[in-house]
Amino acid sequence: MNKVINKVLFNVTILLFAFLVALILGSVILLIAGVNPLFAYKAMIINPIFSVYGLSEAVVRAIPLMLVGIGISIAFRSKMINIGAEGQLQLGAVAGGAMALAFAGAPKIILIPLTLLAGFMAGGLWGGIAGWLKAKLSVNEVLSTVMLNYIAFQIYLYLIRGPLIDPAELAYGTGVPQTQRMPDSALFDRLILGQRIHSGIFVAILIAILVYYLLWKTSFGFRLRAVGEEPKAAKYAGIKVNKYLVLAMILSGGLAGIAGSVEVIGVHHRVLEGLSANYGFTGIVVALFGSLHPIGVIPASFFFGLLLIGAEMMQRAVDIPSAIVISIQGLVILSVVSSNIILRNPAYRKKFEKLIFNKKLLFWR
Amino acid sequence: MTMASYFQIITNMLAVAVALSAPYIFAAIGEMFSQKSGVLNLGVEGIMMLGAFTAFYFSWAYDNILLGIVMAMVVGILMGLLMAIVSITLKADQGISGIGVYMLGWGIASTLFRLFIGGVQSISGLQDLQIPILGQIPYLGKILFQHNIMVYLALLLVPASWYILYKTPWGLKVRAVGTTPRAADTMGINVIKTRYQCVIIGSMLAGLGGAFLSVAQANMFANDLIAGRGFIAIALVYFGRWEPLGVLKGALLFSLANAFQRWFQISGISFPYEITVVFPYVLIIVVLAFSYKKFSEPTALTVPYDREFKG
Amino acid sequence: MNKILSLEMVNITKRFPGVIANQDVNIKVNAGEVMALLGENGAGKTTLMNILYGLYNPNEGDILINGKKVKIRSPQNALDLGIGMVHQHFMLVPSLTVTENVALGINFKNKFKMDLKVVADKIKKLGEKNNLNVDPNAYISQLSVGEQQRVEIIKALYHGANFLVLDEPTAALTPQETDQLIKWIREIIKDDMGVIFISHKLKEVTEVSDKVEVLRDGKNVFSVQTNKTNVDELAREMAGRDIELPTVDKKNEFGDVVLKVEDVWAKSDKGTDALKGISLALKKGEILGIAGVSGNGQKELAEVITGFRKVNKGKINFKDENIVNKSIQYIIDQGLGFIPEDRLHMGTVPGFKVKENLILKDYLKYPFCKNFILKPKYIESYCKTTVDEYDIKCPNINTPTHALSGGNIQKLILSRELKRNPVALVASYPIRGVDIGAIEYIHEKLLEARNNDVGILLITEELEELLNLSDRIAVIYEGKILDILEADKATKSKLGLLMAGVKEG
């Protein structure tokens, strides 16, 4: 047990250090943009913690991030780099929304699972296509998922502009591309009056625990991890490698799809433009920060949920385009993958453990 | 319609295709160098975005297109250096670090665009340069010899890169480093240095490709200017089997399809808009699915080199 | 460039994370002599030579040439000093021609052009002069192992090497080719060439060298003039104790045929025919050795039997059922064990814990797993017993497998395959790169399985191993079985001729 704690402590320390490096590099961009980095970062990291609104909104953002991040972790664990969560999420949102509208009369206990299932299936289909292309035709999954993102985006737009558009929009001639409001029986409950935080958070955490169990405690997970760690050995053990690549991508895309439908029935209550809010890409950062571990993704998603709302608050405080967050996330990705050179080296970990262990001894004295 | 007008349409389409292919050629030839040396740079899209913005900004603010193009190359070099440090020296997973570079480039370009330019602005852009005599050849002159100078540069880049790869000592090094880095190392070749050079050259060309889009094609900048062209360029490297001529073929074929799609949209034939927009992306997936991958891929692609690694 | 009259490595120490590969190692070689560097796998020979060649930087120690200290920080330095090295795994670029491979190391004056014709001519001349003929325009991927070795030597000579390091040069050669190489080495040292010859094969060491330096656990343990020692003494010094490798005891009664390969055709990874109508039959309780120069279809043979490779034509009967193109899982379930050639990446999942690799083929079965849920308690206790039983040395069963030594990984694989009570076992190169203690253990276990009526197909390049263990020896040549010999009638020279494709009578 002690060893596990030491390992986690080591990983967290290195990751936070990597994050700090990214922030320092990011301050260069802020300086070019003519903003005081210290002021900006204070608005971004400190301000949201001290308001109910900030905390609630952080959780609102953490929910889709968590789901997407878990999905991406599953894909990465089986060595599939899934960059397509953005598209998978959008299709999940539109499929979930369509389902909720189609069965509007059903009771909550049925309608919510049905909606999430529709999201899972749409996202899973989209992820599965990339998995199948990789397994059968060895198409690089990074490229295929990126292309599928563009295609999904057009399908999404087409559906909410055309077949699924709110009839009221057509009647009034406003033509805002969005669906009707979801029926009440499809909605997640709001947890705090006047805030958007909703009960979807429990679903997300539950899924994280389930996925952890699936990956490490079942034969299915054993196979999936074996395929990711070393496909040759997995094949040697009789595992159908291609099948598990596709399954991993279906699961990965499916979770992004659930994230999409959760956004619809938890936050926006409609399917509308801009709903995906780059969660598909931020989810990659969250997955990396969570060490590609479903349980690690939980704190990581809260952390990045906080950063995202922080960035919005910063945007209002110092008037800087929110796209800057994307560039800072890019820096975070770069510094986190670079820090792997330290994380993977057992010598560094030993040194660190020694340090911690010695401190503990002092403490006990 | 008469025969002549059909020829006219086809000639126009081919001419447009040649012009459209230039940014792909820049970016894909650059990426080819990077991959030949063993580094998969997935950040091309972001580098093109940043290159496009930089070129546009300097052309717009200083009214100097050449300065803009040069600055786009400089920015490309810097981004390449970053990618190289992370992927070669720090041995990060290239599939992920490239996405980091992409987001970084995209984010910076979008931010600075909002801050420094604000909204839609346009510039006059590079003018077409009709080559005397050759430009007068019927049909062919229109297709090949009435473009701006960067198109000619892109077309020249293909034989030039072929010569460099197959006829110079440096090209020989690049080919060795991307397949069997350890063998190259034992022959006294600096694997790390060669890879740095290739990644940086590749990014510089990606910056140039981005610059082409903003100052020689669209004559403006917008957040969706690149629209996946960087990723498509990477796909074209696979399609072209890591050969300059193959890359050229892919770029032309793809641009022709694009030119056709444009013509289709304005031809008045009624067809869902979304499907025509999606067409190039579907085409790329199909191309990737059916291009022949075995045996030509640089075998050390995405594998960081570690001299003291005990495998 | 000066001629190397003497080369010394003094007090060399090299540490890797967690291991000391060399500790205060000293060697000295003069021009005109061959020094054999002898030691088991993992004794530190290759590390020492990689330091000499500038691939590794030593933590301590110096290299002296003609008595003067030199700094070798990269292979370029070594080349400049006149040191040439032929690595165990050839350092050639398969997609380039012989000429291009040689040209890689040339510092061309003109950066924009290279005259490969001049290089090709010089290669031809060097080849004729030194009796090393190769076609300069051939692609490396088309050449045989022996030819590739010649390219490696030519490469070194082209770049002015007057001191050669040959790392396990005979590993992939037939006995006849080995004899030729030894003769060649004795010839070139007459021109004042110094040679370091690395090997763990004692007989060739005594034939080729003037003096022997034995390394064990990264330290010098013995140095001697070759004419003052013998094979037995060297073996003892190398292992640090008396080693008597077990040998098979003759028996006349075997069980029924359990595995029958009939006229099987299959393609290699490159798409060429690797197996061209191969046929053989393995009986219960028999070890059938497969001898052959590597690359003659051994890898493909093991893979078609175990279901990894598609069979284009022919039949493979296992327990009287045709298993051609059946799934790997199905073949495993029928009781066919497999010790694969690529131990770390195929036999185990390197990132998995020892316990996960021990159940790599059983995780689905009760009591390891019930209703798709793994049973950690049973798995733990099972694995703890297995690790003790098979003497697998690891800190604990939760250690990642890649942290284990080659010998212990092989024991892990062996234990997993044997504990499943196989009907037959395909063992590919079971002792490649394994230290002698583990070899002894693995051989004992294989013989024990044979005596328990398991049929074993033993694929290896070590003739010693074949002669010690096999009941019969089949020689594979260009994808076919050229001949099958009873073990007691097989000799090294007979096998050697067959391996070269020569069938008498």
How would you summarize what this structure contains?
The complex is a heterotrimer of chains A (365), B (311) and C (505). Chain A is mainly α and 365 residues long. Chain A has helices at residues 2-32, 37-46, 52-77, 85-102, 108-137, 141-161, 167-172, 200-217, 219-229, 231-236, 241-268, 279-289, 294-318, 323-343, 346-364.
Protein described:
The model of chain A has no long low-confidence stretch (mean pLDDT 91). With 365 residues, chain A is mainly α. Chain A has a domain at 64-301. Chain A has 15 helices and no strands. Helices cover 77% and strands 0% of the residues of chain A. Chain B has 311 residues and is mostly helical. Chain B has a single domain, classed as ABC transporter involved in vitamin B12 uptake, BtuC. Helix content of chain B is 71%, strand content 2%. Chain B contains twelve helices and two strands, in the order H-H-H-H-E-H-E-H-H-H-H-H-H-H. In chain B, strands 1-2 form a two-stranded antiparallel sheet. In chain B, helix 1 (3-36) packs across helix 11 (244-266) and helix 2 (44-62) packs parallel to helix 4 (94-117). The longest helix of chain B has 34 residues, at 3-36. Chain B is globular, with a radius of gyration of 20 Å. The model of chain B has no long low-confidence stretch (mean pLDDT 90). Chain C is of the alpha/beta class and 505 residues long. Chain C has three domains: 6-239, 3-Layer(aba) Sandwich (Rossmann fold), CATH 3.40.50.300; 244-335 and 425-505, P-loop containing nucleotide triphosphate hydrolases (Rossmann fold), CATH 3.40.50; 341-420, no CATH class. Helix content of chain C is 32%, strand content 26%. Chain C is built from 17 helices and 22 strands. Chain C has helices at 45-52, 75-81, 98-103, 116-130, 145-158, 175-188, 202-208, 231-239, 298-306, 328-333, 343-347, 354-358, 376-389, 406-419, 436-451, 463-469, 492-499, and strands at residues 6-16, 19-30, 34-39, 60-65, 68-70, 83-86, 163-167, 194-199, 211-216, 219-225, 257-267, 273-283, 287-291, 313-318, 321-322, 336-339, 369-370, 373-374, 424-428, 455-459, 472-477, 480-486. In chain C, the strands form five sheets. In chain C, strands 6-7-8-3-9-10 form a six-stranded mixed beta sheet, sandwiched between helices. Chain C has a six-stranded mixed beta sheet with strand order 16-19-20-13-21-22, sandwiched between helices. A four-stranded antiparallel beta sheet of chain C has the order 2-1-4-5, covered by helices on one side. The model of chain C has no long low-confidence stretch (mean pLDDT 92). The chains are: A mainly alpha (365), B mainly alpha (311), C alpha/beta (505). Chains in contact: A-B, A-C, B-C. Chains A and C meet through helix 9 and helix 10 of A and helix 10, helix 11 and strand 18 of C.
